[in-house]
Amino acid sequence: MYTDARHERGLQLAQRGHIVKQADGWQVLSQSGNGHYLVRIDPPPSCTCPDFELRQRPCKHIYAVEQRVTWDTALDGSQTITTTEIKTVKITYKQNWPAYNAAQAEEKDRFVVLLDALCHLLDQPVQTNGRPRLLLADMVFACVYKVYVGFSSRRFMSDLREAQAQEHIHTAAHFNSVSRYLADPALTETFSKLVTLSSLPLKGIENNFAVDSSGFSTCRFVRWFNKKYGREIDNREWVKVHLMCGVDTKIVTSVDVSGWAANDTPYFVPLLERTAKYYQVKEVSADKAYLSNKNLEAVAKLGAMSFIPFKINTVVPTDNSIWAEMYHFFMYQYFGQFLLSERWPHEPSSSKVKLPNLPVQEDNSCDSSRVYWLPSAISRGPSGSFSAIS
What is the predicted pLDDT for the residue at 128? Predict the structure, then answer.
């Protein structure tokens, strides 16, 4: 394990490739991708980059070439150069088709049973006057089940009557009532609480969490004038879902819903507080959209570690705050590389959670524009249905 920062960056350059042997040396692509440098490894080694010209000591480009070339000195004093080619191999996994088929065939039956048990945790609001209301548990069941089935309100009625026959609900409400409850903003908090409750069976084995947002498109279109391109643009309107999920179990522990133009940062602390109410939080990972002193302090108060990358234009702090501590940890200990190699080995196709890759540029700043896709817990289970409804 290298302790020198230039060794680390040289290893990154070697793993990325773009090192070409030429007659007068080795051509190495700069880490920013904006140019090439010529490296000579014949003693003494040299490089045409500004870092070597200033220090006259080995730079990251020299270390990168050394990673690609192994020197074997024979007994007679001759030298042999062995070039190691780095290839990217795609890992594939076999599908257990019998287990997959059984899970898919039984999913709907198990879903309604779990949904029934979850909805029975809801208390019926007290009513003092007026027309008797429908049971809240029945309507929440109907709303979630409709979204899961994916049919229109009218075609969904046969599924709802079947659920009534199986005694999952007391009354099969009219399809207009189901649509009205779906459009009621007052139920958003109820759905959000049910998401958290549905995750509690796994609270004993989950301590590391990730935060991000995802979008759900609607059938409405919006139009706006794009000043950058000087023309009108139209697209589907969509809602934004902010969620916290477990790294190991992929379960959603808390969720919030906002408009498509909402910023991510203000939703970090509410998601964290709701999760910390039931879970012991040790690590929280997020992308740079959630970077703020308030968010870092909220994680620190829980005795947990926050892994949030800093932006390339962040001013170097000089105080002893948590902001300064995390800045130096991020910039000089490269925790992001540890996260990418250790924390996130799996990647389901439904993933919407992102974490920046952290290549260091020529000016020693971090470029977090390139991202890796990480696992989320949005799925065809109870948690995924609730978040979609909200």
Answer: 85
